[in-house]
Prior knowledge:
Helices cover 35% and strands 23% of the residues. The protein has helices spanning 4-23, 91-115, 123-148, 158-187, 191-217, and strands spanning 44-53, 58-60, 66-71, 78-79, 84-88, 219-221, 226-231, 238-239, 249-252, 257-264, 277-281, 289-296, 301-304, 314-325, 337-343.
Amino acid sequence: MKKTIPLIAAIALVFAVGAVIAMKPVRHGEPPPSPPPATKFQSAVGAVGLVEASTENIDLSCAVSGMVTGVYVKAGDRVQAGQKLFSLDDRDLQADQRVKRAALEAARARRTKLEEQPRAEDIPPAEARVREAQANLADTEVQVRLIESVTDRRAVREEDVQRRRLAYQAAQARLAEAQAQLALLKAGAWAPDIAVAKSEVAQAEAQLKLVETNVDRLSMRAPIAGVILQNKVRLGQYGQCGPLSEPLMILGSVTPLHVRVDVDEHDAWRVQGGAPALASPRGNGSLRIPLEFVRFEPYVIPKKSLTGDSTERVDTRVLQVIYRVKDQDAPLYVGQQMDVYIETPLTSRTFRQHSGPAVGGGQ
Length: 363
């Protein structure tokens, strides 16, 4: 009995150890689903890049707020400079435009009427009135001559003599008036009246142009030739003007594509202008896309975590380097993250070879 209990305990211990060993998971080495990014350069700086349009991504908005009544493009469409993208409700301005156009036509008609004076049809009646006044004057002159030729003053009254003399003077005045009116008619419109009419036309044209400009501002047009990278405009929605957290449209030129590379400030001194670089899309380290140096952004900025969120956290400071994608047929998309390796010299030395002189540097 004394030997049985220790024997049972030993057997239980051996069984427990064997069970633990049997239940221990066996781990087999498995290759990663895709090879990690690597560089063929002997000395390089690793960085993170973001694919963007060569014109940079342009966030489009509208000049004034209003309800969207027309959308003429979709994401992925290529557009030309000046092409209409979307439009807002302009019914009130269209009505005002018709009023201003009618006012302009009336002002032009008044100006034309003054400039074309005198009308050929108005001259014969005026000349006829002059001839009538001349005939009346001749008649009154005969009447005065006859009454003054009477030698016997007792045969005529002095009152009749004075009446005929006054009638003669009145006929002279009417003739002078008819002649003046004929001369005024033939002289045409007064120059100051024409100037006033011209200024009224100019004012009406300016008012119409103002309304047309306001109508045109309700149609958003492409500022450059490029591709619609994103479209958030929908019929019937209320389009807000000004900077938005989510732009209505994003436009950019993708020929060629650029990569904005964030180089950590601790490695910035190692990167030289014109240095070649290789980029690999996230998740595909076997694809190496050659990059061509374009420029440095001269201002070192706080790094963002590239999440696309408006509240991205500030990590460290980075020097941004712009590279051009040499292979335009590479399967890349704007906004795609890239693992970038930039070739650096083998020897350690102070970085001096920027694309231009250092900002604020001494002699």
